[in-house]
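FAQ
Q: What does a multi-component entry look like?
A: The components come first, one per line:
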Amino acid sequence: MQHLITTSDFTNEEILDLFDEAKIFKDLTTNKALSGKLIVTLFFENSTRTRSAFEIAAKRLGADIVSLDIGTSSGSKGETIFDTVANINAMKPDAIIIRHSECGLPATLAQHVDCPLINAGDGKNAHPTQALLDLFTIMEHFDGDVKGKRIAIVGDARTSRVAGSNKKLLPRFGIDVCFVAPDCFKLEGNDFKQYDNLSEIIDDIDIVMSLRTQLERHNELYFASIQEYAKDYCITKEVFGDRDILLLHPGPVNRNVDISDEMLKDKRNKILEQVSNGVAVRMALLKKLIK
Ligand code: CP
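Then the predicted structure of the entire assembly, as tokens:
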């Protein structure tokens, strides 16, 4: 039995095989590969894309899906997360998908369940299915020729589980990762090149991934307001010029803070393509893990 807790759970070969399967699912036609299977989702944090994409992926594969309504669950009566998961596990689902604010929780829970457990985001630690769909989108854009491409991840990397997963996954496929942010959003440590402004490297990069500013996760900020931040870090037409750069964002986008309205209409942004690919990649993932 295999779980997906971080992208390191899969070899490069497994990921490429997964992508081959996802390409087949790209047209999103139904396929009954998981007919008779039951999947449970436990989203302890809000979600638009990840939860919907998993639910659509499961249904398109013919599986049944039960999404626990966390607001009306017995957590409000003092039940621990461990007991909640033990009880769901006792109902014998074929997979459990969980999003929770506690870093490392899915790794611990995986040791106590009898079915594949998929991490749909744990705090600021990891978001493996987002990184997989990001890599799939990058590979699709460059026809698989991604070795040596350079990506600048712009914004709040310090609290971003998307950055946390991508900084580990993308270099495995030869993509050079750097970060652009004010000091309060920079990563700790010196493992990656980090810049103050995108203008320093805009002529040398192939991909920009903008991130949402997660003000709720910070104690200290070094700018007066979100508008002050946006003056320096919002991706605008002025910043991109006519350069041939692929623009990505995991969502949700804060319009005119992360990316301008104009750039959200620009053909170089593939944000909704990421969302479509998220269904295809998750279909391939569910088919891979559920036996
Ligand atoms: N990308 C992402 O995780 O979006 P949601 O929070 O809407 O799932």
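Q: Is there any commentary attached?
A: Sometimes. For this entry: The first strand starts at residue 38 and ends at 43.
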